[in-house]
Amino acid sequence: MRPWGKVAVVGAYEHPARHAPHLTPYQLHAESARGALADAGLSLADVDGFFTSGVGPIGILSLAGHLDLHPDYLDSSSIGGSSFVSHCLHAAAAIDAGLCSVALVTYGSTAASSRFRIGTGGAGAADPPDAFEACYGPTIVGSYALVAQRHMHEYGTTSEQLAAIAVTTRRHATMNPHAKYRDPITIDDVLASRPISTPLHLLDCCMISDGGGALVLTSAERARDLRRRPVVILGGAEAARHQGVGERDLLDIAARQSGPTALGRAGIGHGDVDLCMVYDSYTITVLATLEALGFCAPGEGGAFCAGDRLAFDGALPTNTDGGGLSSNHPGMRGIFLVIEATRQLRGDGGMTQVQDAEVALVHGTGGMLGQRHSGVTLVLGRG
Amino acid sequence: VSAHKYLPFGDGSVHLAHGGPTTLPTVPPPLGDGTACLLLHAAGGSAGAWRPLVDAIGPTRPWAALDLPAHGRSGGVAGPAGMEAVAELVGATLSWLGRRPVVIVGWGLGGAAALAAAGRGAAGVIGLVLVGTAAPFAVPDELLAVLGDVVRGRRPQHFGTEGFAPTTGLDVMKIAWTEQVQTDPRVWLSDLELLARLDVPALARGVRLPTLVVTGASDRFAPPDGARALATTLADARVEIVEDAGHHLPIEQPARLATLVAGFVETLG
Known about the structure:
The structure holds two protein chains of two kinds.
Chain A: E1 7-14, H1 25-40, E2 49-52, H2 59-67, E3 73-75, H3 83-96, E4 102-109, H4 130-133, H5 140-155, H6 159-174, H7 187-192, E5 195-197, E6 200-201, E7 211-219, H8 220-223, E8 231-241, H9 255-266, E9 275-278, H10 283-293, H11 301-305, H12 323-327, H13 334-346, E10 359-367, E11 373-382
Parallel strand pairs in A: 2-3, 2-4, 9-10
Antiparallel strand pairs in A: 1-7, 1-8, 4-7, 5-6, 8-11, 10-11
Chain B: E1 3-9, E2 12-18, E3 36-40, H1 51-57, E4 63-66, H2 83-97, E5 102-107, H3 109-119, E6 125-131, H4 141-151, H5 170-180, H6 185-196, H7 200-205, E7 211-216, H8 224-233, E8 237-242, H9 249-252, H10 254-267
Parallel strand pairs in B: 3-4, 3-5, 5-6, 6-7, 7-8
Antiparallel strand pairs in B: 1-2, 2-4
């Protein structure tokens, strides 16, 4: 039993809020759920599968209560910011297996107005490995900076090449009316912004915003009767990397495993991909991910991302909504990758619409590159 | 102890802190008996900056303090583009509160907002207290340059001393800085740019309400001469200069300001 091509995204909604101290995370979940269901032409009563994360160990139960949901299938897998991409994959499997028929995926966070220091706060000491790592004070940005340092050391990648990713992403944000940062920037602006963790400057880093989003998935068969053109899940895969003490390969990215598997399951090659939505916690995340996914050879990521290649009108349009670098990043951005891919494949991409977009590759990264992290690749196609 | 409300405004909601008992979300708070003070914060500020003044005034005076859009706990990412929208917000807030009589106490940008609201004939307003407000505002170019660098990521958050009197201690500045970080520096910068180009005399010209103009002797944004110039454009204004205070007068000299406000409200009957 394989779900590929048999399950579709039929509703998508991105909450426009970027700074919303007047809303609670649950309100953002609820308003997003309402938006996605309205987009699909369905109601809460139709939902029998519920997927969410970032709400605490049994928070999905409280949230189900808040939304008055009575699902037959629950999944609050938590593998970092990629969790919601993973939920789409799990929902596809569950729908194909008959465990549920309409899956609702929701996300909401007030990370910015709650003053949550995501990237620079000290690591918690919840998992056993933290006993060996947290005592040295690692930060998330520090971990990604090590990956960037390594890439520079191994391949001569430059800060200018990383900055080009931020510049292109900001160019997309200038055309997104809801993006938090919409002023155009240059490579010099990125390099002149203050260092956060060498070699990453402030403008190499994603922002912290408030926000929320939701997705509705159902069978491709049922999708035909719904309001919107379906976006079909053609393939997907997950992977984990857990580089232990003494065995660290900073450039071994989970995308290297999940990418080829997902493309293989979809039965397509890199040349078939019209756009990418890649988690951009930092510029290095984009570079390392595209490289690991196989869009360029190891070490060529710097040159690959320079110039306009990643622009919406370039050879490999990437993060056409302005990404976490410029549009929004409430802490776990995975859901927005799927939402923007859905918009693009529907032809609703607005000013950054990729011409004739038929296939989108989504890749979410969770946790920390260079330490324990997850990778989830999803291949979506216009239905 | 203050209570909080969120009022729908435009595409989002604005935050209102207030004294007196709390109520259900859509029910206006009673605030208390007598003339109420509606407090409007300064550029880049927020309602919490009024805490020292509210404490100094004491629990008997009804009060409410707005966070302008994108400030403090109000939603949105962009500050006001002009005073018309702010005046509309003040009018809508007063209508919602259903209160009269009210004295608007505005500080800097909030003072300009008070003038704009009074010029539009906001219902129930019987007087204005303009703190750190001048015609024109003197926005230091070097501060605009520094904040420009902050919003471009070239330097970290600016904890400057230009808003304080030379005699003001670090402990008082910390109160202001703690409040400063509640608002995005981009909003602070856009507020200051708005003030720098604002035609304050034009806002003041149509105002007939009794007005108390209070400014710090060391205020660089609203210097005493500018405050006196503002008073001359108003129909019924009195000027008070407070020693040992800069632009953060409500935080630097809250007790003195509380006395002035209370005395002014008394004269309104």
